[in-house]
Amino acid sequence: MMSIDAIQRASKKIRPIVKETPILTSKQLSEKCNNDIFVKAEHLQTTGSFKIRGAMNKVSDVAAKGETAIIAASSGNHGQAVAFAAKTFGLQATIVVPEDAAIPKINAIQAYGANIIKHGYTSEERINYAKTLEGTFIPPYDDPLIMEGQGTAGLEILDQVKDIDIVLVPVGGGGLLSGVLLAIKQTNPAIKVIACEPAIADDTYQSYKQEKRVHIGQTETIADGLRTSIPGEMTFPIVQQYVDDVVLVTEEEIKAAMMFMYERMKQVVEPSGAVTIAACLGKKLQVTGKRIVPIVSGGNVDLFSLHHYLP
C-alpha cells in the first residue's frame, strides 16, 4: 500500500537530481481569480515537467537491480524524463513514439541519448509494442514508484505554502494526481484537492461521477499530455477515495490561460499544464478569498506550433 512514508523516501532518493520548483505569485492573477493564487511551477522542473520525479524514482530502482535497458512509450514529457533518467544512471533507453511525432519532441528525447522507434498512432499501440521489446518497461503512471515520485511535488507544496485551502492538479492518467492526493490528504485531510481536466477529454470526470473507470476513446484536446481514454487502473482507486472534485475546462479557456501566463507572468506553459490556471481564471471553483495552489505541470511547448494555441 502506498503511503506518505514511501513518498518521503522517494523525495530523499531523487533530491540530488530533481529540483524543488518555485512557487510563483502574481497580483493580477490573484485579482482575476478572486483568490490568493500560488503557482507550483513544475514547468521549470528538469526536462520541463513533473514527469522527471516519477521517472527518477522508478529508474533508480531498476538500475539498483542491475538492469541495463529500459523501454517507454511516449511522444512527450514521459519520454524525455525516462531518457534523462536512463542517462543519469548509465542505462540504455528506447522510447516508442507515434509515427507522426513532432520533430522537436523526437530531438528532445534523442538529446538525452535515447533510441527512438516510431510505431502506430495511439497510446495503446505504442504501449503494447513497447512491452514486446527487450528491457524493463517504465509505465507513464500505473506504477507505485512512479506515483510516489510524482507525489513529492505535493510534499514540496506543503512546505512552501502555509494555510492552503485548495490544491489544483491536472489529470490525464492520474499519476501526478494520485501521488499528490496521498501526500496531501495523509498529511492534512482538510486541504481540498481538485482535479482539472479538458472538457473534451473527460475520462476522469466521467469515471468520478459514475464511480467506475469509464473509457471515452481517443480525444483531440490541445492538452496532448492529458489525452488518456481511461483513468489508470492503479491511480483511479486513489483518486476515487481522496479527490474532492473534478472540474472541466474548455479548449479556449486553456488557450487563454497559456496567454495569461505568457503575457502577464512571462512563463511559457504547455496546454496540459495550463488547465489548472484555466480553472482559476474560468471561476470553476466558485469560491473567493481562498489560498489556492494550482500545479502547472509542464512547459514543453513546440514553438513551431505555438501560434495554434493563441485564442
Structural topology:
Elements: H1 4-14, E1 23-24, H2 27-33, E2 36-37, E3 39-41, H3 51-64, E4 69-73, H4 77-89, E5 92-97, H5 103-110, E6 115-118, H6 123-130, E7 136-137, H7 144-160, E8 166-170, H8 175-185, E9 192-198, H9 203-210, H10 235-242, E10 245-249, H11 251-265, H12 271-281, E11 291-296
Parallel strand pairs: 2-11, 3-11, 4-5, 4-7, 5-6, 8-9, 8-11, 9-10
Antiparallel strand pairs: 1-3
Helix pairs in contact: 1-7, 3-4, 3-7, 4-5, 7-8, 8-10, 11-12
Descriptive report:
With 311 residues, this protein is an alpha/beta fold. It folds into 2 domains: 4-49 and 144-309, Rossmann fold (3-Layer(aba) Sandwich), CATH 3.40.50.1100; 51-137, Rossmann fold, CATH 3.40.50.1100. It has helices at 4-14, 27-33, 51-64, 77-89, 103-110, 123-130, 144-160, 175-185, 203-210, 235-242, 251-265, 271-281; strands spanning 23-24, 36-37, 39-41, 69-73, 92-97, 115-118, 136-137, 166-170, 192-198, 245-249, 291-296. The strands form 2 sheets. Strands 1, 2, 3, 8, 9, 10 and 11 form a 7-stranded mixed β-sheet that branches. The chain has a 4-stranded parallel β-sheet with strand order 6-5-4-7. Helix 1 (4-14) crosses helix 7, helix 7 crosses helix 8 (175-185) and helix 8 crosses helix 10 (235-242). The mean pLDDT is 95. Residues 15-298 form the Tryptophan synthase beta chain-like PALP domain. InterPro entries: Ser/Thr_deHydtase_PyrdxlP-BS (IPR000634), TrpB-like_PALP (IPR001926), TrpB-like_PALP_sf (IPR036052).
